[in-house]
Amino acid sequence: MQTVPFDWLCPDWPAPPTVRAWTTTRTGGVSTGAFAAMNLGLHSGDETACVQQNRAILAAHMAGARIAWLEQVHGVQVLDAEAACAAATPPQADASVATTPQVACAVMTADCLPVLLCEAHGRVVAAAHAGWRGLAAGVLEATVARMGVPPATVMAWLGPAIGAQAFEVGEDVRSAFLAVDADCGAAFVAADAPGKWWADLYALARRRLARAGVTQVYGGGLCTVKDVARFFSWRRDGGRCGRMVSVIWSTN
């Protein structure tokens, strides 16, 4: 069992012992105010020096693993994590895959769904940022395909995201998913306002992973909006908030 710093989350899944993974919470950093305390987002509005210090705290707990930071754009681009590490600035993408030990895939979230993946032997790991746009467009399918292993050997963990009773969306969001998966209607429950729906990101992600051939799916059930003490939330805090990070890497 890996040791997880502070109250950060560790996936409850049968990954090989060489795989390390966790999601940070608000605990453990130096930021203050709306960004207290472990904000890892440089473009969040927080003091840059605080974010850099928080990133140093994160790195200190990763036993030398290099982090592949991305500039997330709610798309489906999947990059090689080692190449992302070598880039002068974080490249635009919403997922990365690593086949090299001590190279960590990472995604930042504050309501969107972080998805960590690994194959049965721990030789390939991946992380995907699945907001509704990327999820509808196929970021999870693209990530599984980029891993280059039989999907049946892949397991996934769904990290903290906005919950089904907090994510109100319009008909445009529901239609975007139905256009690709006509049977996903159960993931949407009519809200009180006309044309509004409560959307279950966790259920939608499980469906998309199943369509990609991944049936070993763990996690889910948390809500970043409702758990103020542990999680940042873009929707709850009106866009002024920090970012958690979900990381995964192999030690050998």
What does this 3D model show about the protein?
The chain is built from six helices and 13 strands. With 252 residues, it is of the alpha+beta class. It has one domain: CNF1/YfiH-like putative cysteine hydrolases (4-Layer Sandwich), CATH 3.60.140.10. The protein has a six-stranded mixed β-sheet. A four-stranded mixed β-sheet has the order 1-13-5-2. Strands 9-11-10 form a three-stranded antiparallel β-sheet. The longest helix is centred in the N-terminal third of the chain and has 13 residues, at 48-60. It is globular and about 50 Å long.
Q: What's the CATH architecture name?
A: 4-Layer Sandwich
The major β-sheet equals: 6 strands, mixed
CATH topology, what is it called? CNF1/YfiH-like putative cysteine hydrolases
Number of domains: 1
The rounded distance between the terminal residues' Cα atoms is: 16 Å
Residues in helices, as a percent range: 10-25%
At the fourth level of CATH, the homologous superfamily is CNF1/YfiH-like putative cysteine hydrolases
Q: What is the N-to-C order of secondary-structure elements (H for helix, E for strand)?
A: EHEEHEEEEHHEEHEEHEE
What is the count of helical runs? 6
Instruction: Trace the largest sheet across and list its strands.
Output: 3-4-7-6-8-12
CA gyration radius, whole angstroms: 17 Å
CATH class bucket: Alpha Beta
> Taking all residues together, what is the mean pLDDT?
97
The count of strands amounts to 13
Shape: globular
Spans of at least 5 consecutive residues with low confidence: none
Q: What structural class should be given to the helix and strand makeup?
A: alpha+beta
Q: Strand portion, in percent?
A: 15-25%
